[in-house]
Here is the input.
Amino acid sequence: MPERKPFDILVLNNIAEVGLKRLPAERYRIDKGAAQPDAILLRSQDLHDMKIAPSVKAIGRAGAGTNNIPVKAMSERGVPVFNAPGANANAVKELVLAGMLIAARNLAPALEFVRVLKGGDELIAKRVEEGKKQFAGIELPQHTLGVIGLGKVGSLVADAAIHLGMNVLGFDPDITVDAAWSLSAQVRKAHSIDEVLKASHFVTLHVPLLPQTRNLVNAKNLELLRPGTILLNFSREGIVDSAAVVEALAAGRLKYYVTDFPDGRLAGAPGVIALPHLGASTREAEDNCAVMVADQVREYLEHGNVSNAVNFPDMNMPRESPYRVAIANANVPNMVAQISTTIAKAGLNIHNMLNKSKGEMAYTLVDVDSPATPELVEQLGKIGGVLAVRYLPVRD
Here is the structure.
């Protein structure tokens, strides 16, 4: 097998070194200025206004959300966009619990009260005794936590709340089988967001930002809250209508809005406890995300297998031949037949094949018994609906 050049990886933002070390130096060049990279690894860098080189075969985001990546445009080029769902779940869960306790015990205003105290020991002690009653809070047991979104983070939050003695009401119409199995039987099932908002003392949001979830919590359904409810948003900024939240706080329907996403409407508003996007900001979460996404990108570049791509189906086909072809195409009829026919006309025997689809995208892996020629790759690329073709012989 002829020697092959290393894969060039363009790294944007600071990706944890423990993740970059998953890409062996003899096969990968890590370069923060690569002009023609094979893949891009990033965290928060916005790619929407960036010219993404034609050489890019994969993009990996060391985090869960992919709003900073032009996913649709990459799908049209046959480029998978990987993320790291669940890798930062524990970090977010712990911050949600912290937010609940900060709100339940009125710690934010209490801290500010103490911060500005002046005088000697005796005077400060007197003012503390006089002032502490205004910060009396509540304990969590027997209160109801509503969890909207029961993926990895939502499930961990629900489980932790149960262990703290809370009643938990959950809603997620799109819950996966794996998530359902991991969910505690003590979580009561709600049938709508409105049901959760009506019944809960605390409400926490754990859904992705999609067109259908933008302003999921809004002026209309905030009217359903019982007075003094505490709302927590460690999901995405656009999930909640900030202006409606400020109005609900002023009206007393909300006691606190605890969020990781401050904006101009929330700044300085009474009852807002805003943090500077700390959800995944732990050493452990950054390491976990970097390792997960680096492994996924490497497996795709070398073998064509796909895990946790937001725009490609999950695909894992063990190698049964050193000669593999990977084909990304639009999810339209007769593609597998055309691919098989083209390979057969080139005189190659198909040893194994796997085809799956996800929405408008389909993906096919084909192991053949002898080397594929550049002419075959070109012919496959000419099939109507084919977006990208890669030949993946086993690398030395």
The chain has a mean pLDDT of 95. The radius of gyration is 26 Å.
